[in-house]
């Protein structure tokens, strides 16, 4: 393989573990590697960084004018707070983060498809949920990452003074999961889903409050037919399946006010059903959400689609080639729009 004929894209963070691979990205191709011996190769055009591993004390310096830097970071600021300061984030030419403003937005990274939102597979009928209220609280909380930057546990602790909450995780725990489900890795198990689906409401609190940072804490209850009581992304209204599909903590001035509203919905089937009507009818009215899912170039747990890391690599590869082609075009035209070396055609006579 003649590596010298392709742009080299070097993962400075060894995320993929690939020592060298020629990746085909449509009509373009790049050589992807984690091998740092390529740092000073004349064809090395881009350095890729995984946000979790990003360290300002270990960077590919000196940075040359033709070196692009690209960031892949699906996590919140809690994971690496340095990345959320302007002097750092502006180092990157290409980004893939949870923000809709990224070059490759990962906002829907925890949502497989429209179909799973509409699915009734785990839905427990309201009549059954009302019967289950004899032994279950109306509200469930499952969290084992305690006291994060969003300070969610303090809010939940106060909320518990006004409404019954079943808390299964390590944070504020008052109820036990079956032994096989106590490992956090089991939270996508079918049996875990079945337990959570019995509840009317779930506290879906993110570990950080950032625009467009939306995790499985929000999407999971929607898939299960449980109404999320959500705290996190200030832009969550832009991503709701319908106007009435979640209860937003930010709409209430105090936990006591929220508890009063939840108790009202718990008592009144008609009011509660308004929040699951979209699912029962299979109607998602949010065009932003539908468009984002339809147009994204990567899949979630779908072997028939590229994953978001492959898509990120190809995005950078495409942009490198695009810049190269623009540069080649510019070399033939001076700043006044005059083509260099172009002369009056000579007569054939």
UniProtKB/TrEMBL annotation:
Residues 8-105 form the Fucosyltransferase N-terminal domain. Its EC number is 2.4.1.-. It catalyses: L-seryl-[protein] + GDP-beta-L-fucose = 3-O-(alpha-L-fucosyl)-L-seryl-[protein] + GDP + H(+); L-threonyl-[protein] + GDP-beta-L-fucose = 3-O-(alpha-L-fucosyl)-L-threonyl-[protein] + GDP + H(+). It comes from the Eukaryota. Residues 135-325 form the Fucosyltransferase C-terminal domain. Its main location: endoplasmic reticulum. Pfam families: Glyco_tran_10_N (PF17039), Glyco_transf_10 (PF00852). It is found in: Endoplasmic reticulum membrane; Golgi apparatus, Golgi stack membrane. It is a single-pass type II membrane protein. Pathway: Protein modification; protein glycosylation. It is an enzyme of class 2 (transferase). GO terms for cellular component: endoplasmic reticulum membrane; Golgi cisterna membrane. GO terms for molecular function: alpha-(1->3)-fucosyltransferase activity; peptide-O-fucosyltransferase activity. Keywords: Glycoprotein, Glycosyltransferase, Golgi apparatus, Membrane, Signal-anchor, Transferase, Transmembrane, Transmembrane helix. The keyword DNA-binding does not apply. Belongs to the glycosyltransferase 10 family. PANTHER family: ALPHA- 1,3 -FUCOSYLTRANSFERASE, ALPHA-(1,3)-FUCOSYLTRANSFERASE 10. Protein O-fucosyltransferase that specifically catalyzes O-fucosylation of serine or threonine residues in EMI domains of target proteins, such as MMRN1, MMRN2 and EMID1. Attaches fucose through an O-glycosidic linkage. O-fucosylation of EMI domain-containing proteins may be required for facilitating protein folding and secretion. May also show alpha-(1,3)-fucosyltransferase activity toward the innermost N-acetyl glucosamine (GlcNAc) residue in biantennary N-glycan acceptors. However, this was tested with a library of synthetic substrates and this activity is unsure in vivo. This is Fucosyltransferase.
